[in-house]
From TrEMBL:
Residues 10-371 form the Aldehyde dehydrogenase domain. Pfam families: Aldedh (PF00171). SUPFAM superfamilies: ALDH-like. It comes from Lysinibacter cavernae. One of its GO terms (molecular function) is aldehyde dehydrogenase (NADP+) activity. The lineage of its organism: Bacteria, Bacillati, Actinomycetota, Actinomycetes, Micrococcales. Its EC number is 1.2.1.4. This is NADP-dependent aldehyde dehydrogenase.
Length: 507
């Protein structure tokens, strides 16, 4: 298949290099691929001081936050190195030839997952390390055996260039093929490369508008490709009276910390916190917010949007300011914000939903005051689309399953499970652990594909596709499917004769 529109020469070279590297990189032994990922992690750690300095200058994020994020990025790479070595992600299944098969003769069948090919990763603005050039999408695709082209984010261009140099040098030093990791810049370049037939998957973290645009491009290609977008989320939180009675001060402090962290520029920030009427948290929240210093927003465009959304929400009928916060615009147009918390009744939220319900990217959140006996389970689908997270603060009585409203809580949990990718009991959603069981995704518009995750080891599955071999000579099979299993990966083997026993386990 050829492209309808030729790429610019520099882009053609980059895409051609990625395509040329695809087969060679897919054939690299997982142990060697893992060593390359660890080499990248080590190189990022070795360049920490330089990279963090560039990132702080370009994004306004604190060095403490950026150092933690760079550590997370290196940990992600090392985690995926272990995933590659383990080989379980290949999902090898072997059905031995069986002349006594229940449905007639069964041929020898061997199935596993292979890399999809070159991947285009669109970087995020708010995580200049963990969701950017060397972030989780890149780590997962590289671990899967896919060449990666990263579209740099305009919010941190110099950091993107330098990070890409560190990554590419480490991969080359580990003996990986040329063209395995490359960087492009500019919106037009990203769209042009996304349309190229040699690109086999795309990933994105950013706004609903931009993500939908890119997802539609990926879907409308002559040969549509998978596109994994992490888009918008308001992450509702539900607090019971029992939880407030037991830990009001801790709830208020945790809430403000979660809203104010990184100036509220996190996809998991709690945008709406449902609390019972007469909750009595106003003073504690205001006190927790008062000492929080101003924090620069990532760029001028985000600052302008934050001012507009904040003013619109505060001006909505029925909204009460709990912690006023503020936003200061400097001479360069950058915004410096402190957290703003407002409150509104559940009825007024419904009435003002067209203004209130959209995500606010910045340090602002809404307390939603619900009356006793309110059917919160029914309110969730009425008010919310899909979210990355949903959180419950229940108190010890309800969490032990002894409260009078246990059935109502079960209904709420059931509904939240249908509307979010991660359901938390206690705590706050802004902590996203880099660990095998993490799910960082959810129904639209949280993500464009609700069966995927962008954090955790399951993220590798986005960049793989299954293929089966039937009656193939063992010597011609890929290494993971051979009887000798030279890669030493897990193999699920269905031996001849077992079909006659199918169903017996249910007796």
């Amino acid at each position: 298949m050829t492209n309808a529109e030729p790429l610019a020469p520099e882009l053609e070279t980059i895409v051609a290099n990625a395509a040329a590297a695809s087969d060679a990189y897919a054939a690299v032994n997982p142990v060697e691929r893992a060593k390359a990922l660890v080499a990248v992690a080590d190189a990022l750690d070795a360049s920490r001081e330089e990279l963090v300095s560039i990132a702080a200058s370009e994004t306004g994020l604190t060095e403490a936050r950026l150092n933690g994020e760079l550590t997370r990025t290196a940990v992600q790479l090392r985690l995926f190195a272990d995933v590659a070595v383990d080989g379980g992600y290949l999902d090898v299944r072997i059905d031995e030839a069986d002349t006594a098969f229940a449905l007639g003769v069964r041929p020898d069948l061997r199935r596993y997952h292979i890399p999809v090919g070159p991947v285009l990763n669109f970087s995020a603005s708010n995580f200049p390390f963990a969701f950017s050039v060397a972030g989780g999408d890149s780590a997962a695709a590289l671990a899967a055996g896919c060449p990666v082209i990263v579209k740099a984010h305009s919010g941190h261009p110099q950091l993107s260039i330098r990070t890409a140099e560190v990554v590419a040098e480490a991969l080359a030093g580990a003996g990986m093929p040329d063209g395995v990791f490359q960087l492009i810049a500019g919106q037009a370049a990203g769209i042009a490369v996304l349309k190229d037939a040699r690109i086999k998957a795309g990933s994105f973290t950013g706004s609903i508008y931009a993500g939908r645009l890119l997802a539609d491009i990926a879907a409308s290609r002559p040969a549509p490709i998978r596109f994994y977008g992490e888009l918008g989320s308001v992450n509702p939180v539900f607090v019971t009276k029992a939880a407030i009675d037991e830990q009001a001060a801790e709830l208020a402090a945790g809430y403000v910390t979660s809203v104010a962290g990184s100036a509220g520029q996190l996809c998991t920030k709690p945008g709406f916190v449902f609390v019972p009427e007469a909750h009595g948290l106003d003073e504690a929240i205001a006190s927790a917010a008062a000492p929080v210093g101003e924090h620069r927003l990532l760029n001028q465009k985000i600052a302008k949007s934050y001012v507009e959304r904040r003013d619109a929400i505060i001006g909505t009928a029925g909204v009460r300011v709990v912690a006023e916060g503020g936003i200061r615009i400097d001479d360069e147009g950058h915004g410096w914000a402190t957290p703003t918390i407002v409150a509104v009744s559940l009825d007024n939220l419904r009435a003002g939903r067209e203004t209130l319900m959209d995500e606010v990217f910045g340090p602002m959140s809404v307390l939603v005051e619900y009356p006793a006996g309110a059917d919160l389970a029914a309110a969730v689908p009425e008010l919310f689309e899909g979210n990355l997270t949903a959180t419950l603060h229940l108190g010890t009585v309800e969490s032990a399953g002894e409260g009078a409203d246990v059935e109502a809580l079960r209904d709420l949990i059931r509904v939240l499970t249908q509307h979010a990718g991660r359901v938390l009991f206690g705590g706050w959603p802004t902590g996203v652990a880099v660990t095998p069981a993490m799910q960082h995704g959810g129904p639209w518009p949280a993500t464009s594909n609700d069966s995927s995750t962008s954090v955790g080891t399951a993220a590798i599955s986005r960049f793989l596709r299954p293929v089966a071999y039937q009656s193939a000579p063992d010597a011609l099979l890929p290494e993971p499917l051979r009887t000798s299993n030279p890669w030493n990966v897990p193999q699920a083997i269905a031996p001849a004769g077992e079909s006659t026993q199918w169903g017996s386990s249910a007796k």
